[in-house]
Every structure is written in C-alpha cells, then in structure tokens.
Amino acid sequence: MRSAVAGERYRRAICLLGVLVFGLLGLVSLAACTRSSAQAGAPTSTGGKTTIQNKGSDTLVNVALAWAEAYRDVNPNVSIAVTGGGSGTGIAALINGTVDIANASRQMKPEERQAALDNGIEPVQFVVAIDAIAVIVHPSNPVDRLTLQQLGNIYTGKITNWKEVGGRDAPIILLSRETNSGTHVYFLEEVVRKGTGDEEAIFAPQTLLMPSSFGITSEIRRNPNAIGYDGLGYVTEDEKVLAVARDSESPYVLPRVETASDGSYPIARELYMYTPGEPTGPVAEYLDWIRSPTGQEIVAKVGFVPLTAGGGS
Amino acid sequence: MTVTPRPTTRSDVLDESQRSTRWSELVIENSIRLAGMSTIFIIGLIFFFLLREGLPAFIEVETSNLLSLRWYPIEDRFGLIPLLFGSLLVTLGAIGIALPLGLTTAIYLGEIAPAWQREVLKPLIEVLAGIPSIVLGFLGWIALAPIVQRLGAPTGLTAFTGSLLLAYMALPTIISITEDALYAVPKEYRDGALAIGATKWQTIWRVVIPAARSGIVMAVMLGIGRAIGETMAVMMVTGNAPNIPRLGPDIFFQPVRTMTATIAAEMGEVAQGSLHYNVLFGIGIVLFLITFLINSIATYFIGGRPSRRKGGRL
Predict the structure, then answer these.
(1) Cα angle: B81, vertex B82, B83; to 5 degrees
(2) Which of A30, B173, B228, B291, CA to CA, is 20 to 30 A from A217?
(3) Is A212 exposed, middle or buried (0-12, 13-18, 19+ CB in 10 A)?
C-alpha cells in the first residue's frame, strides 16, 4: 500500500497549505478592518476630471442634488456624487475619512468632533441654507394650530388624545424620523425639550421611527390620527401643515420662506456642510458657488430658505 | 475519509495514465475537503469579529442600563428589553400563523392531493420562497398595512403586520421540510393502519404525523430561525417604535421594534468604535445566541442527523 501512504502524506500537505492560506486571509481581513479609519478623503481626480464625494442628511439631499446638477454647467470638469442616509451617516463618513463634503441638518456633536480629531481630521463647518420644519397631519384632522408646549407634550406622551388639543376623540399616532436623522435631533432639542421645559425629555417610546421622509409622508396621508414633522421642502399638497406658536401668548405662524427667514416661525434651523480640514481647490470653489446668489437661488426653488433672505450665520 | 481498498496486485503495475488519475483525484478530493473546512473557518471568523466588536458593550454599559425598558441610543440609553420583546412578539405571531397553515398545506400536498396538483403547487411554493424580502416589505407597506389599520388598529404598522409578512416568508421552509418528512414515512405504516380499519384521517393524524414528528419539529425551528433573523420587511412594516407592548387583546396590534431592524436602521449612522456601535454588535451576539439555542433545541428533538429510513427518501 505504498501509494496510500503517499496519498496520506500528500493530503496532510494540502491541509497544512489550506490552513496557511486561510490564516493569511484572516490576517489580511483583520488588518483591513483595523485600518479602515485612515485617509481623509481628498477628491479623486482621473484624467483632469474631479469627483467630489458628498454624503449625509436626507433633508439636504434634494438641494444637494440640484446643486450638483447645476454645477455641471459651471465647471464641467468636476462631478459631484451625492448620497443621502442621514446626517449621522454623513458625519460618520467624515470621521472615517470617506467623504469630501458631509451634509448635516444639525451641528456636529462635541464627541463627533473629537472622534474626527482623533482620526486626524479637523471638520470645518459651512452654513448652506435654512430650513423650516413643518408639523404635518392628515388633511381631515380638524386641529390646525399648536403651541411648542403642546407639541412637546404630545411627543413625550403626556398628551395622547387629539381631543386634549381641540381635535377628535382619537389616539395620537406619533411619527418621527430615525434617531440618526439630524431632523430628529433638532426636533428633540428645539421642540420636545424646549417645549416641555425639561432638558432630559425624550420622545415617547410609542413613537414610530421611520427610516425615511417617504415613510412619514405616506403614513400621514393614510392615517387620520397621525402627526409628523418634516422639512418644508418635502411637504406635499395632500398633507395639512399646522401653524405653530412659541407659547400660548405668541401668534400662530405657518411655515413659509418669509416666516422662516424673519424668525417668526419657531422651528427653523440652519443646514450645514462639513469638510475635512479647510477646503482647497475644487471643493472650495464648489462651496463658494453654493453660497453665492446663484447657488442660493436653487435653495429657494427646492423649497428651502436661502441664506441671503436673512438669518444666515 | 478512507481510501478505497484496491487489489494489491494492481498497485504495483500502475501505468502513467493511472498515476495521473490518482493525482487529479487527490487534488479534487482535497479541494472539496478545503471547501468544507472553510465553512468552519468562516464561522470562526464571524464569531471572532462579533465577539471582538460586541463584548465591550456588555462590559462598558451597566447591566441595569441594558436591562432597562428604554432604547434611545443617542442619549446612551441602551435598554434591550423592548427590542427583545419586539422580536419575540413578531416571531411568535409569525409562527402562530405559519405553523397551522404550513402544516395543513404540507399534509394536503403529501397525503391527499392528486399527483397533478402536487406538480403545480410544489413549484409555486418554491417561487414564494424566492421572492426577495424587500419586495414583500413593499407589499406589506402598500397593501397590508392599510388593511390592518382598517381592522381597527390605531396604525397599520404593527407587530401583527410584521408577523403576517414573516409567516409568508417562513411558509415555504415549513411546507417543504414537513412534506419531505411526511414522504419519508414508510408506506408500510400507512398500509398497516389502513389494513386494521383506520380511516384516512386517523392514519394521517395518529400514524403518519407522529412518525414524521422530528422532521416537523425541524421545519418549525427553521421557520422560527428564518422569522427572527428577517430584517428589511420587518423594518418597513412594524413601525420601529422601541415600545413594550401593553398586555391585552390588542398586544399584537401595537408597533414594535425588532433587534434586526434596530441594527439595520442604526448601523449606518454610528461612528466606528463608539459605545453605540459596540451595543449594536452586542445585539448581534444576542441574536446569534437565540438562533443557536433554537438550532440546538431542534437538533435535540431530532436526535442528531435525520436517519435514512427504508422505503422513504429524505
């Protein structure tokens, strides 16, 4: 049985080789995983054409796309790749060094800034537009105005029935964006916390967390008892927008470009872009163009409030 | 693996071509062996990464926080209880719907249906298994949720909606494995039962099903595994509210947030290496343990590998 012995030896060799190969593979993947946080994204350029990676806030994604499209005529050598995913997603990408511009509908948190600095990336902030957050309900809902305090109490679960705010006798269905949304964080700070006067307040656990703006609008359209919030640019005809007052003595104001820019509508905020380090070259030119009157005209077209209308940084 | 014994006389007279056949055979045999072993290696690697990224969560977050009733990660509140409840509720509902449906379908297919119906139904059921879960999720969002809302639920996005979708996803698994188990019951059992005067129903209920018990348990367990691990469809229709459902008749008609949906919805957002990131991996470990437990129970019931019985095919 000489050949059987040889076969045995051969088989052992193969096994050993296999273990070696897979072991190596494992090491490589390990290394790849620990290394992924390096390299701040410099715009990639191939053959004179530059691609800028732009990622983040779903609130900003429409206007970012409009900018990217219009900029193609301004500078044909630069193409801008826009993706959404939420402010947290964009900022995480900035921290991990995979984008050139991160879009955010909220400011970076101190710990996020620290995480970026730890990776050798210094985030630089630019205000690019202003957004009013509209509070929306089903068109059949008789309620047409609320104070910030009522909104806060509704979203913390202290008010659970529409009749407590002058509506039908029906339970209130709370809709919100996911916690990675900048709009969620803004609403938490400015409405839930300021409205209730409780700095620790958080959304009621029964709040439905929607992964997208689409989720909120389509549930609003089919559920007569739902309440939600979304950027003014995303509100459609078949949703009812509520007038909001700072407190019971203040006037109730509907969100509009004018009311958001003069500050009379209480839930309006700045929208941001972040770059890893002070921008240079194509990225700097792009950001300058965005904040120029031409770029801000596009902001107004998409339904947001341009910077020049007042209230800018 | 043993080498096939050959007459010793031939081993001494191997000519060139036979020698090369043996060579290629060895290579093939060993590559197959490598492929098989790579599974073990990959599982080991997955487990290693899961533990490396997830274990810090259980060390750095206090147990009281993990066992609290509130999941609100941006404020560092990592209560896993609502998520566990969400997953359990949706899965229980799904099994409650899929088990009777799947079992009866399998019995019909295996014992009652004429051959031509079986020829039509079996491939259709396999098509059902092939529908991507995101497509089912869309159907659930557009068609199912409004129906559930019309049934009287405050919103269409509830645990029940998720259960219905998951039931449909688990059905093909349950049906085909149960049917195989029924098919594996030897024909002699049925003949014997019928011969002593049992009706067709008595034969099925008292003889065939008990004989196929282990296969049916396996079908259910695999169905549960499918249901608890499903993500996209569930994320679209359960409302994702990290809420502990109130006990009562409407327990299934409240929004819930499952563990899988939580990981999927929040993974894109977290900064690598943050506490939240670790906790999401921690949820992955919990999920892994649950499916591991389910599989172990299934294996225990079956008593190892299902044996090949005479007269049947498995």
Answers:
(1) 90
(2) B228
(3) middle
Q: Would you call B155 and A178 a contact, using CB atoms and an 8 Å cutoff?
A: no
- Tell whether B54 lies on the interface with A, counting CB pairs under 8 A: no
Is the ipTM higher than 0.95? The answer is: no
Token couple for A94: 């900035």
Per-residue pLDDT tens over the stretch B170-212: 999 899 999 999 999 999 999 999 999 999 999 999 999 999 9
Helix/strand/coil (H/E/C) assignment for every residue in A159-222 = CCEHHHHCCCCCECEEEEECCCCHHHHHHHHHHHHHHHCCCCCCCCCCCEEECCHHHHHHHHHH
| Residues listed for chain A | 313
Model confidence over B116-144: pLDDT tens digits?
Answer: 999 999 999 988 888 888 899 999 999 99
Sign, CA dihedral A289-A293-A299-A304, equals positive
Q: Say how many residues make up chain B.
A: 314
Q: Residue B80 region, left (φ>0) first, then alpha (ψ -120 to 50), else beta?
A: alpha
With CB atoms and an 8 Å threshold, state whether B72 touches A37.
no
Q: Using the predicted structure, report yes or no on whether residue B4 has a pLDDT greater than 50.
A: yes
pLDDT band (50, 70, 90) for residue A289: very high
A15–B33 CB contact, under 8 Å? yes
Distance CA A97, CA A95 (A): 5
Nearest to B245 by CA among B136, B163, B134, B151: B163
Q: Are B139 and B238 a contacting pair, CB within 8 Å?
A: no
Q: Tell me which chain A residue has its CA closest to the CA of residue B70.
A: A205
Q: What mean pLDDT is reported for chain A?
A: 84
Asked if B154 is an interface residue toward chain A (Cβ–Cβ < 8 A), one would say: yes
Q: Is A32 on the interface with B (CB under 8 A)?
A: no
Residues A146-158: tens digit of each pLDDT: 999 999 999 999 9
Indicate the residue type of A251. P
d(CA A127, CA A270): 6
Residue reference for tokens 């050993």: A16
Which of A230, A219, A271, A291 minimizes the C-alpha distance to A57? Answer: A271
Chain B residues within 8 A of A89 when measuring between CB atoms: 268-269
CA–centroid distance for B134 within its chain? 17
B228 touches B84 (CB < 8 A)? no
